[in-house]
Amino acid sequence: MRTKEVIEKTGVDRETLRFYEGRGLLPKLTRKDSGYRDYPEQTVARLEFINKAKCAGFTLKEIKSLLDLQQKREPCRSVRDAAKEKREEIKTKLKALKEMDMVLQKFIHECEKDGESGLGRPCHFSFDKC
């Protein structure tokens, strides 16, 4: 499959394809006599997996590890464990984001508590401890 076909089927651009090749997310390619890259059919499924894994919060390095596990035909437990670990990481980040939101909300409330006159005064810009 030529580069143009992969792009049309996946929406991934040419530079991203080359970047993924360089990072080992896509296997090394053979070139046709004409010089064109020749992608195997499973490239589309692999790119879809990469995109889904990115949406789930995995880094490219982590995705490479997941692909390596798949290549080695590791049991599903290995990938499940990686997903559980990522989920815990996301929960921790969500908790931190909620705390940040509370601090910002308090700051906004302090600025707005005296109405328009409070907004016109010099900013006191102080935050409570986290």
Notes on the structure:
- It contains 6 helices and 2 strands, in the order H-H-E-E-H-H-H-H.
- The chain is mainly alpha-helical and 130 residues long.
- It has helices at residues 3-10, 14-23, 43-55, 60-71, 76-112, 115-120; strands at 30-31, 37-38.
Task: Sum this structure up briefly.
With 130 residues, the protein is mainly α.
What fraction of the residues are assigned to beta strands by DSSP? under 5%
| Biggest sheet overview | 2 strands, antiparallel
Instruction: Briefly note the CATH topology name of the domain at 1-57.
Output: Multidrug-efflux Transporter Regulator, Chain: A, Domain 2
Report the span from N to C terminus.
54 Å
Shape: elongated
Overall residue-averaged pLDDT value: 90
What is the second-level CATH architecture of the domain at 1-57?
Orthogonal Bundle
Assign a percent range to the helix content: 55-70%
Q: List the helices and strands in order.
A: HHEEHHHH
Number of helices: 6
**Can you tell me the CATH class of the domain at 1-57?**
Mainly Alpha
Oligomer: single chain
Number of strands: 2
Spatial strand sequence of the major β-sheet: 1-2
Rg on CA atoms, Å: 24 Å
Query: Helix/strand-derived class?
Result: mainly alpha
Q: Ranges with pLDDT <50 over ≥5 residues?
A: none
